[in-house]
Amino acid sequence: SISGATERRLLTSDNSVKILNDWSPDGSRLIYTRHDVSTGLDLWVIDIATGITEPLLATPHSETQARISPDGQSIAYVSDESGVLESYVARFPSMEDATKVSVGGGGQPQWRSDQRELFYLSLERAVMSVDVSEGDRLAPLTFGPPRQLFRASIAGDPGDARDFFAANADGTRFLIDYMLRDEGDQ
């Protein structure tokens, strides 16, 4: 608790590298990336109340950068299963019906707070937007084609462990980790 009303509590500990990805909207679960020597980077979930951890998505490919949708029913994540980093959306927590939403590579997916848009960073460091619509029971979400919002001198790579951009709740403003250039690089 940020109020200090409760003591700190260790949720999980082992020798594997872990990177925090996201909290579920109801605060009951934490999603993290875990490195495994046999499968690489995998998505794991921990139940905050019980401390039980389990793999969410562990394949021979690398999966990382998970973001749970505002309604808690879907999850955006990045995988290299196509041979290049791409952003996907699947049902949460079943991970069924994974849909690739990026084109030509992309990482660091982020939801707009009303879940009507998903942003990601292209491999060329452009901030991209994908319109999200409600579907039906078989496909609860549908996705429009990606469109470039803008390019910037973003400091990092779309595959890095930390985010290099953040969208505000309604997707009208962005905070960018900007890469300074040498004065001679105008």
Structure notes:
The protein is 0% helix and 44% strand. It has strands at residues 18-23, 29-36, 40-47, 53-57, 63-68, 74-79, 86-91, 99-100, 106-111, 117-122, 126-134, 141-143, 147-151, 165-167, 174-176. Strand 10 (117-122) and strand 11 form a beta hairpin. The mean pLDDT is 91.
Helix-strand sequence: EEEEEEEEEEEEEEE
Main beta-sheet annotation: 5 strands, antiparallel
User: Unreliable segments (pLDDT under 50, ≥5 consecutive)?
Assistant: none
Q: How many beta-strand runs? A: 15
Quick gist of this model?
With 186 residues, the protein is mainly beta. 0% of the residues lie in helices and 44% in strands. It is built from no helices and 15 strands.
Give the helices and strands, then pairings:
Blueprint: E1 18-23, E2 29-36, E3 40-47, E4 53-57, E5 63-68, E6 74-79, E7 86-91, E8 99-100, E9 106-111, E10 117-122, E11 126-134, E12 141-143, E13 147-151, E14 165-167, E15 174-176
Antiparallel strand pairs: 1-2, 2-3, 3-4, 5-6, 6-7, 7-8, 9-10, 10-11, 11-12, 11-13, 14-15
Keywords:
mainly beta; 186 residues; single chain; globular
